Each structure stands twice: as structure tokens, then as C-alpha cells.
Amino acid sequence: MVVGDFPIEVDTLVVGAGPGGYVAAIRAAQLGQKVTIADKGALGGVCLNVGCIPSKALIQAGHLAEQAHGNEEMGIKTENVSVDFSKVQEWKASVVNKLTSGVEGLLKGNKVDIVKGEVYFVDKNTVKIMDEKNSQTYTFKHCIIATGSTPIEIPNFKFSDRVLDSTGALNLKEIPKKMVVIGGGYIGTELGTAYANFGTEIVVLEGAKEILGGFEKQMSQVVKKRLKKKDVTIITEAMAKGVEESKDGVKVTYEVKGKEETVEADYVLVTVGRRPNTEDIGLEQVGIEKDDRGLIKIDNQCRTNVDNIYAIGDIVAGPPLAHKASYEGKVAAEAISGEQAVIDYLSMPAVVFSDPELATVGYTEQEAKDAGFDVKAAKFPFAANGRALSLNDSDGFMKLITRKDDGLVIGAQIAGPNASDMISELGLAIEAGMTAEDIALTIHAHPTLGEITMEAAEVALGTPIHML
């Protein structure tokens, strides 16, 4: 007996349950829409399952492993430190499970219908959602596409048991003795640092002149200095050519300064970027416009050229950041509900969980000048901060970018411990239109790393207390 595929009608269909999709679904439901969210994978997407969250858990475990070896300068000596890596992986999985089950609870609590399956567009108001057994038609008034991205596979480095993408690197069963990392961007730096802290010998091959190319050189230099202390080898202007795999390891061939070199290791991790998941979902059936990189074109409300379909996250222009996707998800859900929400990326932070951490928001000094602003760049070092010194972690600085004529804060960059948490105050300052004087007049608790923000503001005003 054949059961008829009667269409299920919804107000808003969200395709993809990552940090963009699930946030969009919840906000749309809060605004009174009948919402269905569909994903072929686990709730939380790449970020919660095989990206941001597990990588930060692994990074934290690596920090603890490194700290467990003690610090002779502080008079702390330890012996026989051991790491049970299977326990590390169990703990990492428990963090992920708490968050993914939390997402499921939030969706259900907001009366969002969750469907597991692959989505294919039939027309501008219809999709088929398929699992291994069934195919169900859904019709919708509005749709938000949030299908995310996938690691780029480079020629001659097909992903395998020994040639890893970020997911593979997060799920290793043992701590490698040696690992080659191709790509010195934020993912390669974060995972390379985590394993270096566990004792892995790391070799980074970066095609550009510097690692962490999206950040100012003076910021990446702070990280580079710390990586060298961990005995990480960084080879820049190096082009990966190929890999030979054996059951015990890999032999990577690369070219640097016109000369071919090889390096042997247990694994090679390829982190050269991500590509948008916009193929094979039927977008051509609907006529949705993409650019030459496969990114979906949107307006300032995340609306595609098909007026009832929206797109957010890694599949649209801009950096592939989870918080960017969540922000765009809220804008799209509110736009569908008739609100005047529009995207504004000025106070969008970017963070690298390197050692020490890097964070930036708003304009850099050069970007501000290129945009025609007359600016002042005020720097304050972590080395002049009591809390940083007491943490024995005083490398780095904060740089505050202000307009010369009125002191308006338009950007900030931090290289140092807890930069990921400290950047939010600067994002708020930019969003609220605050000046350096506003920050300097805000009493910051002592002794804290947060005082560095106040001190940098005083440098901008020409009245620093704790530096000459």
C-alpha cells in the first residue's frame, strides 16, 4: 500500500540546525510563526558538534596539561604528569552532549517542529525532506537557509585516516607524537596549539608570509613568539604538494623558496578554509543567485533574490563565525515578521583561541584610515597590568582605535589572555557610540584584566596613569 505524500504546511521552514538555523527558528517562533527546522545531521551543526565547542574543550584540556607540568619560575615543580586522552575525549563529548540536548530542549520549548532529513527545494514554496526511508513534502510561506560550510579538500590531500580535517583532528584516539598542519589560519593555529600543549611536535606549513593572516602582524607576532616557546615549527611561504600515507604515518612534500622538502609525521591536518554548503539542495530549481564562490547573495535583511527565501551564516558573504550566523538568524526571523531589522557588522567581533588569545572588533587602524577617518591608535601593554603579571601571562597588548576629533571608539584589537571575554566591552562601546572618555570614566575593578580597557582609553585621552 502506498501512502500519499500530503504536504505539511508551515509558516517558516529553517534549513539547517547550526548556530544560525536554531537561533533563527527560536526567534521566528517567539514572534508567533509556526516553525519547522530540518537538518540531516545533529542539532547544533558543525559549531556545537565538531567545531567551536569541542575545539575549545580540547584547547582548555591542553592548557591544563601544559600547566600541570608546573612553573619553576613560580616555584612549582611537578613530576610524572600523565594524560589519559580517552578521558579527555569523553569529557569533551559530555560538554557537546549537554549543549546539543540543551538546543533540542530550547527548540521544543519554543514549539519548533524538528525534522531529521535532507532538504531539496522543489520550488519557491516547496521542499522535499528525505531520510533513509521516507520523503515528505513541506510547503512554506518563508524559508531561512542555514546549511553552513564544509572543510576545503586540497589537491593531493584527500581526507582519510591520516589526512585529517578539523573534525578528524578533534576525534583522534591518541595524542600524536608529530603532526603537520597545513594552513596557519585560526583553525590550524587553535588545534595546533592544543596538541602542542599535549606534547605533540607540530610543524605548520603556511602559504602566505605570516600565520593568522586576518589579523594585524603585531598581533600574530605575539602568538608566533609563544608558539616558538612550545617548539612549534612555522614554515611560511610553503606550498603543500602531496602526501604519502602508510599505516603508521604520513610523508608530506612541500615547496619553499623553489626547493622541494619533505616532513614525516603521524598525521597531517588540512585547515585551508571552508566552502559553503549550497550545492545539491535544489537552489537552481528556485533561481536563487550565488556568486562565483558559491555564496548566496542577500540584501541587508538576509533576503535572497527570491523574496520569501532568506540565507544566513557561512553560505553568505563574510567570515564564517557562529555568532555572525546567530545574529543574521535573528535579523532574518524579525524581517519575516515585518520588523525593521537590518544587518550591521561594525561591532562584529572575531576571536582566535590561540595562546595568547586574539580578538578584534570594529576597524583596525589601517581599515579606519582606508575608510577616510582621522584616528588615534592607543596601545596599553598587558605587562603593565597587575592581574596579568600575577597570572604570569603578560605577553600582548590592547589597541583602541578612536576618532581624533571626538574620541569616538570605532575599533579595538587585543592580543593577550582572556581577549575573547574582554572584547565584548569594546563591542558594546562601539554599538553604543561611546567615546574614550566614557570608558575612562567607567570605574573598572582592580586587579583585573578589564582594567586594561580603561588604561587604553586613558592613553587615547593623553592621560595614562600606569605607563609613561
What does this structure look like?
Strand 1, helix 1 and strand 2 (35-39) form a beta-alpha-beta unit. The chain folds into three domains: 8-151 and 275-336, FAD/NAD(P)-binding domain; 163-272, FAD/NAD(P)-binding domain (3-Layer(bba) Sandwich); 356-461, 2-Layer Sandwich (Enolase-like, domain 1), CATH 3.30.390. It has helices at residues 21-30, 45-50, 52-67, 85-109, 166-170, 186-197, 217-229, 283-286, 322-336, 365-370, 386-390, 419-431, 436-440, 451-461; strands at 8-15, 35-39, 70-71, 76-77, 113-116, 118-123, 126-130, 135-145, 149-151, 163-164, 178-182, 201-206, 233-236, 238-245, 250-256, 259-265, 267-270, 274-276, 309-311, 350-352, 358-362, 375-381, 397-403, 409-415. With 468 residues, it is an alpha/beta fold.
Number of domains: 3
CATH homologous superfamily placement of the largest domain: FAD/NAD(P)-binding domain
Mean pLDDT: 97
Report on the biggest sheet.
Answer: 7 strands, mixed
Shape, per Cα inertia axes: globular
Per CATH, what is the topology of the largest domain? Answer: FAD/NAD(P)-binding domain
Helix-and-strand structural type: alpha/beta
> How many β strands by DSSP?
24
Low-confidence parts, pLDDT < 50 over ≥5 residues? none
Classify the helix fraction into a percent range.
25-40%
Output the CATH class name of the largest domain. Answer: Alpha Beta
Pfam families: Pyr_redox_2 (PF07992), Pyr_redox_dim (PF02852)
EC number: 1.8.1.4
GO molecular function, one term: flavin adenine dinucleotide binding
Keywords: Cytoplasm, Disulfide bond, FAD, Flavoprotein, NAD, Nucleotide-binding, Oxidoreductase, Redox-active center
